[in-house]
Amino acid sequence: MVKLRVSVGGSYTDLAIVNCNDELHPIEFDAPEFKGRAVIRIKDFVGITNDGSEPIHNSDYFKGHNRRFSMQVEGRFKREWLGEDVYFGTDFDRSVELPQGFETMLKIARYIDPVVRTSLTKDGKPWILSPLVSSINTMAAWRPQDANLPSPPLTPRHSTEMAQALNMSESSSMWGFLGKLKKGNRGSVASLNSNTSHGIYGSQPNSANNSTDHLDAAHHNHHRYTNGSSHVGEHSSLSSSTTSSDWARGSSMASSTDHLRQNGASTVPTTEAIFDDSDMPLGQWRSHVEEDTTFFIPKKPSMTTPQRRKHFQTEEARKQFVFKTDLVHGFEFFSPHMDFNTFDIRMGLSMNIRKYLRGQPVRYTCRTLNGDTVFWAVQFELVD
Length: 384
Known about the structure:
Elements: E1 3-9, E2 15-17, E3 27-30, E4 34-42, E5 69-77, E6 81-82, E7 87-91, H1 102-112, E8 117-119, E9 127-131, H2 132-135, E10 138-142, H3 159-171, E11 173-175, E12 179-181, E13 198-199, E14 202-203, H4 244-250, H5 255-260, H6 305-311, H7 315-320, E15 322-323, E16 328-335, E17 338-339, E18 344-347, E19 349-352, E20 362-367, E21 374-383
Antiparallel strand pairs: 1-2, 1-21, 3-4, 4-5, 5-16, 6-15, 7-9, 7-20, 8-9, 10-16, 11-12, 13-14, 17-18, 18-19, 20-21
Domain Domain of unknown function at the cortex: 3-172, 252-383
Protein name: Domain of unknown function at the cortex 1 domain-containing protein
Region (Disordered): 195-275
């Protein structure tokens, strides 16, 4: 009988097996460009553990949420990176067989998310990637010395708006393990050329050369669960010492940021500017991440997930954003349709994707577009 094995690490080869659903003991990893830790949640998990112990079958996280897995990563970048340079998605070491109807999915995907890029050549290493800041389900940031959970937004949202975002998150359809499609867009293939969408934070880009679907629906605005940890479920208001203006001053764009933006190029600092990670604490592990853009976009009210994604769909916005070395960044990606215990995609009808992968695992990677730098990787594989 095959069982699921999940591994996490800072590269494709330096991976360690994770005890899924163990929210009190995140697995830590240290990559050349990112120091972090992660918790992987799998609903109804019966797979392999790293110490041979009985698997933790479930998590309270799944109560009240229509999700089958969750990947939560927290960590610090060792030098500053532009939002334009950090991507997230799936990639493979060898070619994969594309299922019937894949081209139609791509057309829908290009309409919904024009910033997603793909490379699906039969003789190469296929990938489907999107800028992390415009694709990930949940994103937040905080200082490592902050002990409390992320503060609620400085600008309160109406309860109806929060309820709408929650409903969008849980009811949206998914394109398998690759990302989300909004239900309302499934019939819009005929209007692919009319892909300009206006919102309160600007207009959506008109095109992207190689794009496919990746994550398009709102993340829940707040969820809580308890697992025995003293800080889980705590929620404090923002103190005067951690206002957005303080963040703007404390995380001001230094000379290395100017180097990043020199001539509008997407570059990184030279090796002399690499952050010294010998004293790089991550602070207290936070058992869940809530969407909160207050600290890394201090001049705007805290955005909802759809607003943040739309804001970063423009190349200009991504080039203006910098992942700061003095902040811990938190990310979460989840899906209601992919059952990694069996590799079944359940979307009304059930389809097993294992045969299309040609013996390869499903791997989610945070990396640069050219693949020269990997920040972290999460690998799902079925083994005997």
